[in-house]
Amino acid sequence: MKKIIRLFLIISFLLSTCSKRTVFPGKEWKKQSPESQGVKSKSLDSALNYLKNNCGKDGIDKLAIICNGYLIYEGDSSNKALNIMSSTKSLTSTVLGLLIDGGKCTLDSKASEFEPLLSEKYKALTLRHFATMTSGYSAKGRSRWGENSEDWSIYPFDVDTPLFSPGCEFCYWDEAMMMFGRVLTKLARQDLKSFLDSKIMQPIGIKDYKWWNEWNVDSLAIYNGCTGIELSAKQLARFGYLFLNHGNWNGKQLISEKWVVQATQNQVPDSIPVASTDRKSIDGRGQYGFNWWLNGKNSNGLYLMPDAPKDLYFTWGHLENLCFVIPSKKMVVVRLGSDGCQNPEIVFNQFFNLLFN
């Protein structure tokens, strides 16, 4: 009798272990009902209705929700690709993580080691500064879009006087990300798209997408480090799911867990000021990792989204092109669109409040 009980316990343990095995998508995401993955359908419906009514005309049309590796909700156009805007930045910094993993550099490597354009005016500038928006880098010329801004010069690699000494202030600056992309290209000795494709995108099942080519230098394409990647919601969810699984994809460690942890923890102290530029309204102090946003505390001790899970982190692009990763819920939520909404922090705070109620 004891042998039978022992055998039963062993079988139960093995079945339990198998049932907890992480699920990864093949060519497509596997679908399951919300309830089967521990999400209340009523709560999901309330959250979806709220977002639909409060986030522009695209609403939830390009929305995908992954829970425990299963697709539990998809909008009607979740397969439609569009520019994910500044969510591109999180993929750019992932290239840095891969290069560090490969022993090509460190966070504190001087950018001028790889790009001579920075040798004169940016001797102290490191790769860490670029990834945390504390570089102070700026290019000559005003916005290429005709806006009243010093950012977005049509000549992003025409080096100008620093906005501030590297590491001393926070400044969300797209020209800096463009130069960051160029530095990483020089460092990798390969264009960013080809490099990322071989290391990350193809292994996780993203085989067909576009990226904005900003320039060509020394026969290398310089892809825009701040924007221009075109993905669908379900494709971007794969990237989020890779980070949810600590850089591991179906048993293969594509990027180190150490990088994932560092990139998604706050790297910008609230002791430094926000630079006095025309983009000073964007404040990442206490809430910014290596080109990832976090649900962290700002300089006033307030969470970005107080009613959302505290471990939530996300990519954030213009017009609310977002990829949320929520480790405590084993969930990835992607919302894409060509519209946006007012006060997105308030809107998505309430969305998550309703979803997990």
Biggest beta-sheet profile? 6 strands, antiparallel
| Annotated CATH architecture | 3-Layer(aba) Sandwich
Task: List the domain count as a whole number.
Answer: 1
Mean pLDDT: 94
Strand content: 5-15%
| Radius of gyration, CA atoms, in whole angstroms | 21 Å
CATH homologous superfamily classification: DD-peptidase/beta-lactamase superfamily
CATH-assigned fold name: Beta-lactamase
Please mark out the parts with pLDDT under 50 across 5 or more consecutive residues, or reply none. Answer: 7-19
Question: Shape from CA axes?
Answer: globular
Count the E strands. Answer: 12
Number of helices: 9
* N-to-C order of helices and strands: HHEEEHHHHEEEHEEHEEEEH
The top-level CATH class is Alpha Beta
Backbone structural class: alpha+beta
Question: Helical percent range?
Answer: 25-40%
Q: Give the termini separation.
A: 46 Å
Strand order of the largest sheet: 2-1-12-11-10-9
Walk me through this protein's architecture.
It is a single chain. This protein is of the alpha+beta class. It has one domain: 3-Layer(aba) Sandwich (Beta-lactamase), CATH 3.40.710.10. The chain has helices at 2-19, 41-54, 88-101, 127-131, 174-188, 192-201, 233-244, 257-263, 344-355, and strands at 62-67, 70-74, 82-83, 213-217, 220-223, 230-231, 248-249, 252-253, 293-294, 313-317, 321-326, 331-336. Strand 10 and strand 11 form a beta hairpin. Helix 2 packs antiparallel against helix 9, helix 3 packs parallel to helix 5 (174-188) and helix 3 (88-101) crosses helix 6 (192-201). The N and C termini lie far apart (46 Å). Mean pLDDT is 94; it is low at 7-19.
